[in-house]
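Below: protein 1.
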Amino acid sequence: MKILVLNAGSSSQKSCLYELAGDALPEQPPEPLWTAQIDWSHRSDLAELKVKTAQGAALTTELPLESRASVMEQLLQTLWSGSTQVIAAPTEINVVGHRVVHGGQEYRESTQITPDVKATIARLAVLAPAHNPANLEGIEAVEQSLGTVPQVAVFDTAFHSQMPLQAVVYPIAYEWFERGLRRYGFHGISHQYVATRTAQLLGKPLDGLRLITCHLGNGCSLAAIAQGRSIDTSMGFTPLEGLMMGTRSGSVDPGLLIHLLQQHHLDAQQLDDLLNRQSGLKGVSGVSGDMRQILAAIAQGNSRAKLALEVYVYRLRAQISALLPALGGLDALVFTGGVGENSEVVRAGVCEGLNWLGVQLNSAQNLSHPVDQDIATPDSAARVLVVHTQEDWAIAQECWRLGDRSA
């Protein structure tokens, strides 16, 4: 069974092709036959396409950015033509899985894509304007290039869909909750994968663990997981709530936003740009939303970059602590995502602030570029793990399971 996975974002498109044999999923993620990435932000008039195969073939090229659809078509063609060919024809692909950011209240699990599902994804774009439209573009590009191949939507919100009402309802007039204004949560595919992987690494059943998973990348979120289920999370109605992020503010006083609207005459679009693209690490530091550039600036004595890191870690520690009452304790703290997996400085700063909880980090292991590893000391009250998130593999697993049930 060949499963193509498309993971579309506002600034990039990641894709891979898995081949699965037999009647059971492997315990460990197999190496994809083919991986590809499009950088939409490379230049205003050009997209950068990078392709690699398991056999070692590679391609890097720039494509005219006349439309995303045309670039996507050329990406897909590298599967069956040119130096990166890994299949003889498009018909070899059995199913295509898509990460879809917002499934609203309608979709609490992965589902096969139909015209009705596409219409719902489009309607929910108002809640995830930087992501759902890009997800739809990927779906439609597959329809154009691969015809009637089955497609599956795997929703980022689904893992959080069973959170208890007290974690879901905003303390505003209840009528707005009845109209869908509620906390949804995001990064669910990643949180669910790393929770399952953590249980494997610890050799314990997932339903017996109390976990806080920290997905830290350009977007950042936490999940409190008990009995294998998300019971609270830091993101809410949109991916803007919660932690300080690369360019997103995270949670701020709503009164501050009213002040900006009334006293500084910002309109809705200016406010959206400020909160989503000009805030977070980038806004405080004035340097970048990329943690690597923040750390480089700190090494050069940049005081605002240092402040940005301090605010980032402070708010992260505070929100981790805020999730503890929902869990009633903590068995493991898990770091994942580009920052979570690669920044020993962030991990050390967070754990230092949790010493009161009995969390103790093994400094040498933290500095050793750990992957899928427990980096806590033997006497730590909770384990601390670094887990490489594999959203693409999680999406492929959902495609396999859905296809298997249909069969």
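Below: protein 2.
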Amino acid sequence: MAAERVLLFFDYGKMDPPALLAEFANERGLILVAVETADEVMLRVGRAFPACVVLDARLAPEEALELCGRIKTDAFTAITPLGIIVGGSRPDFPSLALEAGADEVVRETSSDREQTLRLNLLLSRAARDMAVHPTTRLPGTNQIEWDLARRLESGARFAMCYADLDHFKEFNDRYGYNRGDRVIFLVSVILRDLVRGLAPGGFVGHIGGDDFLFTVPLEHAESVCDEVIQLFDDLAPYQYSEEDRRAGYFLGKDRRGNVHRVPMMTLSIGVVTNQFQEFTHTGQVSERAAEMKTYAKTLPGSVYVVDRRRIGENEPETEGETT
């Protein structure tokens, strides 16, 4: 049983799942699982990631609130989408449920249509939240794959650009993860704003960490990469202390404990296009993009390199810019 396809149902009154909930799960290909105890709910959400949890609070509202709070205050289970079914006897209860952390409240006095819409909202918000990176709010790997597949199907000429920070780990070690997250967010804003402004129809995604992908129509690739690198190099020094910024480096230790100079962060971008080669599936594109990114990181400074090879050619024939 795939955990992500499970709709977990629980109530303290040992009621059967409402017919509307059973129909909702069936229409969406979800496996409706009713559990008997609050501890079993905690066990299941702690071991897997169900599509959502629905608590029926009509017979035991206070107990349902307590269980909702247990789920939502635990760092390992708080991400679980949770809805509560409430009765009409307590007008204040929907507010209490939301305060306890419920993501959605379904009133039994509402129409079937509204109840279904609220359950839909519970699932759609969960899917959206799982699909974006929490720091940058950019689409993740699923959306990156979908966008690339759509471009391959259309036959349009495009450039996929794999961007990666150089010396970010050393920066993170020196300044802490909070400052590191600020740098990640800065890169996301640079990419999002420049792609949006310079390349209509472009897409920006966040793979994770300091790795980003942006895909633009072929004719905009070089201008976007030029602007991204220039703006990053203008702003990156201001993420350092004044002392480090003036020096242009700081002293750090390598894995063996040896002290060495750590230069300022730079940005490496590997670019793959379908100008000279036809790709048949997304894996070919992402593999080439990762290879070009790795090659770009061997070059000094902020740089983008463009792959000019055709399918079957092994040696990189590249063009690019460095700063």
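The longest strand covers residues 158-166.
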